[in-house]
Recover the amino acids of this structure.
C-alpha cells in the first residue's frame, strides 16, 4: 500500500469517526490527489481551527478559487461548522478531510469529476 493510500485510509477513518458518515472513497481520493505533495508535509496537511489566517486560506484558496463559491455564501460559517464537528480541540484536523466535507456541504463534488 502506498503512502497516499495509507493517508486516504486515515482520512476515511476520521470521516467515519468524527462525522459519522461513510465516505465516498472516489471523492476522498480525488480531494487528496488535488492537494498534491502537501499531504506529506506535517504542517501543510493540517488545518488549525484557531488560526484566522489559516481559516482565511481555506476560504480563499479552496472555497472561492477551487470550488468557485462567492463571498456571499456563508463560507466562514460552513468552515466553522466543519471544524466544530471535527473537534475544535483536536490538533490533527486533516486538510483533506476538511476540504472533502466542505465540498460535500456545498454540493460541489462535481468539481472533482
Amino acid at each position: 500500500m502506498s503512502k497516499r493510500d495509507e493517508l486516504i485510509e486515515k482520512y476515511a477513518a476520521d470521516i467515519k469517526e468524527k462525522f459519522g458518515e461513510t465516505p465516498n472513497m472516489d471523492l476522498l481520493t480525488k480531494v487528496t490527489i488535488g492537494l498534491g505533495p502537501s499531504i506529506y508535509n506535517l504542517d501543510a496537511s493540517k488545518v488549525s481551527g484557531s488560526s484566522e489566517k489559516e481559516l482565511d486560506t481555506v476560504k480563499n484558496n479552496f472555497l472561492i478559487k477551487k470550488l468557485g463559491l462567492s463571498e456571499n455564501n456563508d463560507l466562514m460559517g460552513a468552515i466553522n461548522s466543519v471544524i466544530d464537528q471535527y473537534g475544535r480541540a483536536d490538533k490533527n484536523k486533516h486538510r483533506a478531510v476538511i476540504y472533502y466535507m466542505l465540498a460535500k456541504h456545498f454540493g460541489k463534488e462535481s468539481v472533482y469529476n
User: Anything to note?
Assistant: Residues 3-19 form the longest helix (17 residues). DSSP finds five helices and no strands in the chain.
